[in-house]
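Chapter review: from sequence to fold.
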Amino acid sequence: MPEASEAVAPAPALSGDGKAVAIERLITPSAEAMGFEIVRVLLTGTQRPRLQIMAERADGGGMIVNDCARLSRAVSAILDVEDPIAGAYELEVSSPGIDRPLTRLADFARFAGFDAKLESMRADTKGRRRWTGRLLGLDGEIVRLSTEDGEVAVPFTSLTKAKLVLTDELIAAAQNGRYPATQKPENRETE
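The token string follows.
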């Protein structure tokens, strides 16, 4: 039976498969206590699986090598105790990078005004499943994007991939400290 903390802390919709989601739930409390936010957890490969964890600093500062090493040590300790992956695997802890994946609903509001690529499991009325354009933000849980063909509204729950597009504007924002900082979600009372 899941504990209450698992029931109220769903994993990002674009994080990965069931095992990756379970691993994310295991490591998130420790990562947050250390001042990091988990952006994405992916588990790939079968012969020698690779566990990729992307994280960012909750204070909005840039993730440096020492941050990755510190988080990697903490994650390794948790995974050694919990042992969610059978056999040997490779652990990779990194920053999401400037052209980062957008995995949480809040990311689409946070990066409104920048260019992004979206991929959906459902086609729009024109039969398209992939779009590139300027993020306009959110309308509830609908991601809005301005494309060359007009505005597109894509339900967050239908997205399979989303990421920022590396543009001169995005690079300049990151270099000039205008890259949007993370925002702490409001605490919600459980019913």
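Two observations follow directly from the output. Strands lie at 36-44, 50-57, 90-94, 115-120, 130-139, 142-147, 150-155, 159-164. The first helix runs from residue 4 to 8.
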